[in-house]
## 1
Amino acid sequence: MDIISRKEWGARAPRNRQTTTWSRRTEFIVHYSEGPTTQTPRQIQNHHMDSNRWADIGYNFLVDVKGRIYEGRGWLVVGAHAPNHNTSGIGVCFIGRDGDATDAAKKAIRWLYDEACRRKGGTLAKRGHRDVTATSCPGDQLYAWVRAGMPAAGAGEDWMEAMMKKLPLLRKGATGEHVQTLRALLLARSHPEIGPVEGPFDARVEAAVKAVQKWGGVTVDGIVGPQTWPVLLRVHK
Ligand SMILES: [Zn+2]
C-alpha cells in the first residue's frame, strides 16, 4: 500500500519535532476523529495546530473510509494523541465517527500495524485509545475490531468461502457467465449429456445438477446455491 506523504496532502511544517526509536515503540494505538468522513488531514492539522496549539497534527498516520493512508508525524516522531503513550505508541486515526469504518479502512490500519511490526522487528501491542486514556475513542465498532485482533477483511475465510459469496443462485432458465461456469463444472464431473460449455441452464443441466446433489448429499432440488456450489467445486482426490 502507498502512504500519501505530507507533501502530497499539503501539510504545514511542524513547529518542532522530537523523535524516538523502534526499541521504544511498543504499542499501536487506534483512534477515530469523531468527525465527518470528508474531513481532510489538513483540516485536522489546522485544528490541532491552531486550536490546540500543538506542534503538528497529533497522529502518526491517518486513514480514511476509502482506505487511503496519510502520513501524519510518521513512524518515529513523537505524536500528540495519547498522554504518556506518545513515545511508546504509534497513533493511527480513522477519519470518521463510530460505525463509519469500512473494510478498506480496517485493511489499511491493519497494513500499518503489520508494517510497523516489520520495521520494529518485533510485535507491537494492539490498543484502542480507550485502553490507555478515559475516552470513547476509537468508538465501539473500531474498538471491538481492535480487541478481536484487528482481523484484515476476508482474513479467517479461505478462498473457497470468499468465492462462494460471489457466486449467484442459479436455477433452470438462468443466464449469464456463471451458467458457463456451472456447465464447465458439470462437464468436469462427467456429465457430457449437457452438451458443450456454452449453453443454457436447461432441463438437461437441471438433471445433471440433481445427480451431483444426490452424490454430494445435499438437497436434491436442481437449484445451484450455497450448498451445491461447494459440491460442484469439491476437488477429486
Ligand atoms: Zn483517540
## 2
Amino acid sequence: MKRIIGIVLALIIALSGVLPVFAASEHNPETCEDVPVIVVRGMDFGGLYTDVGTENQAAAIRADVGFIIANVFKGLFGTALTLSLDPTINAVAAIASNIFEYIKMNPDGTSKHKVGAIRYPLAAENYDALCQGIDSEYGMARTMIEEIGDHAYYFNYDWRIDPFVVADEINEMVETALRETGHDKVNIACCSMGGVMTLAYLTEYGYEKVNRVCFMSSTFCGAQVASDLLAGQLEIAPDTLYNIAYDATADIPVVGTLMKALKFIGAFRLVSALAGMITDKYLVSVSDQVLYPVFGGTLTFWALVQPEDRQAAIDFILKGQPEKHPELYTKIQALWAMIDGRNALLDEMLENGVQIAVVAHYDTPLIPVFEGASMNGDGILETYQMSGYATVAPYGKTLGDDYFAENPEYLSPDRVVDLSTAILPEYTYIIKGAPHVGGTYGTDYADFFRWLMTYDGEEFYAGINPDYPRFMVSGDDLSLNAF
Ligand SMILES: [Zn+2]
C-alpha cells in the first residue's frame, strides 16, 4: 500500500511540474485557424550597416564631411578657373562615390564590404520596433502581431545581394515559422522589393509550404526605374518635372498657379534642356565612377530589368561585353530565367490551390529622372509592373473615351487602368491615391491588409469581400472606398 501511495505521490509531483506547461500551451495547430504570416519587407535603402549588431554598428551610407568639403571647393574652383563644368561634375561623382563606398559591390555581385541588415529571426512580437510599428511594413507587422500574436514574422535582408541568396534566408524563416507554430503552411505578404525576393524563394523552393502570397506594391514584374537606370535611360523631361512639382505643391493654390505659369513660360523645358545637356555629356563618366561600382553589381536591380531593356542594360553597364563579367552575368541570366518562368509558376500555384492577390496603386507621379517617369505610379514604382502589366494611362491622363477594354469589368471607372492585359486580373486590386506599400497601422488600409492575410475562405479572387472591391480609392488618411 505504502508503495502504491509512493507511486501516486511521485506521479502527482511529476505531473504538477508538467501540467502548467500543458495549460500554458493550449495552441493546437490541428484546430488553430491562424495561418502564420511572414511580412517580407521592401528595400530599406538606408537600412544597411557596417559592424551590424556590434557596438560599432554604423550606417553603411555615410558622409565623410571633410572629404565632401574638400571636393566641393576643388570642383567649384576648378570650374571657376577653367570655365568648364568638368571639375564640378567630377567632384560630385567623387562625393557620391565616397558616400556610397560601403554599399559597393564586387564584380561578381557580392558585397565589397562586410555590411548587413538588422534581422528579426524570432516571431515579430519579440521586437519593440515591430510591436510599435506605424508606417508601411512596420505597421503591417504590428497589425499582424495584434491579430495572430506569435504567428506573425517579419523578414528583412540586405537588398543588394542576389535574390536567390535572399531566397535561402526566406526559406529559413518559413522553416522557423512552421517549426515554432507547428503549422504546415505560411501566408506571405511581400512588399515592394520583397516581391522579387519572394519570387526567387518560390522559384527555388517551390510553393508546398505556402498557403497564400499577397504581392503588395511589389516588384514581381520588375520595375521601370531600375530598368532605365541600368540601361542608361536617364532623362529629366519637362512634363515629368512639372507633374512632380505640381503634385508636391497642389495643396497650396498660389504655388500651384505659379507652377502652371512656369510651365506656360517654358521653365520646365529650360531646366530639362540644361539637365539633358549635362546628362548627355557626363552620363558615361558618371556611370563609370558611380553607377557601375555602386549599382552595376547589385543583382537585385538586374532582376528588375524589363525583358525589352535587357540588351540595353548589357550594353550600358557591361559595355556590351558580358563575357568580361562571367560570374555576374551567370547570376543575371539565372534571374532573367526566373522572370521568364514567373507566369507559368504563378499559374501552377493557382492550379494547386495556392491563393494569390496582387495589390497596386496609382495616381502619384514618379521621380522625374528616368525615361519611364511619365508612367503612372505610386511615387516610387510604376503601376504597370506592380499590377502585373495592366494597361495604364500615363500619369495625369486617361486611356481615352474611345478606349476599348477587352473586359469592361477590368477597366477602372476613371478609365486609367485596364486589367484585361494583366497576368492575374481576377486576383488584382487597384487602389487610386494610396501611397507605395501603404499599410499604415490603424487605418482602413490596415484593415484591408488584415483581411488579405487572415481571410480563410476557399475562394480568394479580388472583390469576393464586398468591403474590398477590385477598384478602390484611398484618402490621404488611407481610408478606402469603392470607386
Ligand atoms: Zn496556430
